Amino acid sequence: MKLIIASLISLLASSAFGSFPQSWINPDVSLGKSTEEAQERKFEESFSLFSKNLDTSVEQIKSDKVSKKHWYLQSIKAELGIEHVGKFGIVGAKGETAVEFVWVRTKESKELLRARHGEKKRKPVQEKQVSEDNPLSKKILESGSDSEVAAVASNYVEALYKSNKISKRGQLKQKLTEKFIQFKSIVSNLSEVPQSSPWWVYKYQLEISIEVSGTIVPGIGIGNGNRLRLEWYRYQKVNKDNKIFTPARFDAFITNLSQDLEALAVKKFDLHDYSFDAFKVGIGMGAKGNLFFAKAKGHVVGALFFRRDGNWTPRPVQPRSKAFSEMPYRLVTEDNLDGEEILRTQIRNGLSRASDMALKMLVAAEKGVRSNDAQNKVRHFDLKVLELELELFGRGYFGPVTMEGIAVSEFFLIKK
């Protein structure tokens, strides 16, 4: 632990923190092509140096130091924050993450550890039995009735109250039941959306924060109370697909966004060791059950996780109408709770530019890591994931989320 802390302190002292290009942070900034290119070159240099220093700090953690318990460091995650002026650096306790790096121990390094210290015979792990009466172990199933959902919410509130995690119950049971039923309704509809591109929704996530006073704080990852996360995974993405699109439900948002993701020309990543095959987007829900992008905290009802299926083959579905295909997105902000329309072409342009940003970051990060390879005979850790969090502005512009912004979507670049 002391070595890890020392390495991170060394990183903080040695990294030349730079700035993101102003046009990436503020969509209204226009400095001219030559100035923007100069800012991007300067960013690439500083970001590459940051990656190099971080990579060096990871490698300095001695791989042959294994405790008597045969524990060893398997992975490291570093979070990067961006100020509203564009400067980036290690995220503090209250900062908002904009970029994440995940390093994982290499297979070669693991084999060296086994050779030096031998395989330790592990004792069989005893599975912990969880009582069915424990309300915290209950699952809200897609097929559960509303009364069953209400019972789960009631038991959960009672558990919080008896453990002194909330001081008042009030209308909490009713409000939490409404949240659970909304969650169940969304996942039921998600199961029936036809798949029209290699991108499909494999997970829906909802986070709820319950304060000590018994108040529910809506939104994703906000509030200081008791966090409750609901997740639904779609395992049977083909068998449940309908052949008919229903614009009045979720189909328009999911179908159009999945096609817009595919239009990003994912082949631009083919020349690199990383691929863009996962995407997360925060969503809100309107009165008629339609979905939209949401930057207003009270209107965020969850997050959709998309994954790209490289082996996907088109299936026959009912042709979509022109009105369906051209249906605009909506963005709800704190200043405009009714939402403003954003055309699909604008979202496509925004996503394309955001993917270019992610690619430039990846190139700079790879450059910094490769500069250390010649000095290291054995590579103990490998950069496996680069995650970029983005906020959405009007006119469909995506930019790296700053500490003052709210992340609406995330790009995941994963090593092949």
How would you summarize this macromolecular structure in one to three sentences?
This protein has 416 residues and is α+β, with helices and mostly antiparallel strands. The chain has helices spanning 2-14, 22-25, 33-59, 107-117, 146-162, 172-190, 251-262, 322-325, 344-373; strands at 75-82, 88-90, 97-105, 199-210, 216-217, 226-233, 274-285, 291-294, 302-308, 329-332, 340-342, 381-392, 398-400, 409-415.
3D architecture notes:
The protein has helices at residues 2-14, 22-25, 33-59, 107-117, 146-162, 172-190, 251-262, 322-325, 344-373; strands at 75-82, 88-90, 97-105, 199-210, 216-217, 226-233, 274-285, 291-294, 302-308, 329-332, 340-342, 381-392, 398-400, 409-415. It is α+β, with helices and mostly antiparallel strands. The chain has 2 domains: 2-120 and 352-405 and 411-415, no CATH class; 194-349, no CATH class. Strands 1, 2, 3, 4, 5, 6, 7, 8, 9, 10, 11, 12, 13 and 14 form a 14-stranded mixed β-sheet that branches. Helix 5 (146-162) crosses helix 6 (172-190). The longest helix is centred in the last third of the chain and has 30 residues, at 344-373. It is globular.
Q: What is the helix/strand order?
A: HHHEEEHHHEEEHEEEHEEHEEE
Measure the end-to-end span: 30 Å
Summarize the amount of helix as a percent range: 25-40%
**SS content category:** alpha+beta
Radius of gyration: 23 Å
Mean pLDDT: 76
Which helices and strands appear, and what pairs or packs with what?
Layout: H1 2-14, H2 22-25, H3 33-59, E1 75-82, E2 88-90, E3 97-105, H4 107-117, H5 146-162, H6 172-190, E4 199-210, E5 216-217, E6 226-233, H7 251-262, E7 274-285, E8 291-294, E9 302-308, H8 322-325, E10 329-332, E11 340-342, H9 344-373, E12 381-392, E13 398-400, E14 409-415
Helix pairs in contact: 1-3, 3-9, 5-6, 7-9
